[in-house]
Amino acid sequence: METILTGYSVNPVCCNGCGACAAMAPELFAMDEVSEKPVLLLTEAPVEDVERAMAFCPHDCIESE
User: Fold this and answer.
1) Cα separation values, 8 from 5, 32, 53, Å
2) How many Cα atoms sit within 13 Å of 16 on the Cβ side?
3) Among 63, 50, 59, 60, which Cα is nearest to 24's?
4) Which residues have CB under 8 Å from 20's CB, separation 6+?
5) In angstroms, rounded to a whole number, what is the distance separating the alpha carbons of residues 23 and 44?
6) For residue 1, what pLDDT is reported?
7) Which of 56, 64, 63, 65 lies closest to 19 in space, CA to CA?
């Protein structure tokens, strides 16, 4: 059974816009061309997908509740 996470976000203060999250989990994140920061595509996501993106974020900007 897949566990769904209902609270995750990207801290824009520490994010440098590298795009690792969008590359690792394109179903969850997309890069905003104007701000050059990631935006969330879903409000709920499988825990495994969020944790994978968190593992590849070089500045630990992806946070979960």
Assistant:
1) 7, 18, 11
2) 6
3) 50
4) 53, 56, 57, 58
5) 18
6) 62
7) 56
- Using the CB atoms, write b or e for 12-50: b if 16+ within 10 Å: eeebeebebbbebbeebbebeeeeebbeeeeeebbeebb
**What residues of the chain score a pLDDT lower than 50?**
none
- Write the pLDDT tens digit of every residue in 9-25: 999 999 999 999 999 99
Q: Give the largest Cα separation in the chain, rounded.
A: 38
> What is the SS3 assignment for 43?
coil
Predicted pLDDT of residue 56: 94
